[in-house]
Design brief:
Elements lengths: L7 E2 L2 H4 L3 E3 L4 E4 L2 E3 L1 E11 L4 E5 L4 E6 L1 H5 L1 E4 L2 E4 L3 H11 L3 E9 L7 E9 L6 H24 L1
Parallel strand pairs: 1-5, 7-11
Antiparallel strand pairs: 2-3, 3-4, 5-6, 5-10, 6-7, 8-9, 10-11
GO cellular component, one term: nuclear speck
Protein name: RecQ-mediated genome instability protein 2
GO biological process, one term: maintenance of rDNA
């Protein structure tokens, strides 16, 4: 993972325009290279094996909790957890369903399947009443200030 490439603040609908750039080991969105996506939405489904679906109102994306996630400390509901076992992980995921969360992770396109984010960070934002409206404003601001000028230059 190339951390010199920014994690793009996006909604799922924007990611539908992303394309692989194999020579760069990255993706491009209107000429902007990236490997990680920063999303927010509601956790709506859990497969029980560290995979679940996030719905941000513009689309759905699959989230996958990587091995790194299980050995790191994460903020969930303002409480830190060390995820040491898969049983604990499943109990944690059941608690997460219906929560509004912020997720950052590696974005992967999959042919014939829902795109996936390998989660690096997940934070419960449910206690904050204006979280969803603020997120859309943040995405719009990032697009207008940073992404749009690059996209217009690329086109």
């Amino acid at each position: 993972m190339d951390y010199s490439l920014a994690a793009l603040k996006v909604v799922c609908a924007q990611l539908k325009d992303a394309h692989d750039v194999p020579s760069q080991n990255a993706l491009t969105l209107g000429g902007i290279l990236f490997q990680r996506a920063w999303l927010q939405g509601i956790l709506v489904s859990n497969s029980g094996d560290g995979r679940f679906l996030l719905d941000d109102g513009t689309g759905v994306i699959e989230l996958h909790l990587s091995g790194d996630f299980r050995s790191r400390e994460w903020d969930v509901g303002c409480t830190c957890f060390f995820l040491l076992s898969s049983t604990f992980l499943v109990r944690l995921l059941v608690r997460l369903l219906g929560l509004y969360v912020m997720v950052v992770g590696g974005y992967f396109l999959r042919k014939g399947d829902t795109p996936m984010v390998k989660v690096h960070k997940i934070v419960d934002l449910s206690p904050f009443p204006d979280r969803e409206a603020m997120w859309y404003l943040e995405v719009i601001e990032a697009y207008k200030l940073f992404y749009q000028p690059l996209i217009e230059e690329f086109v």
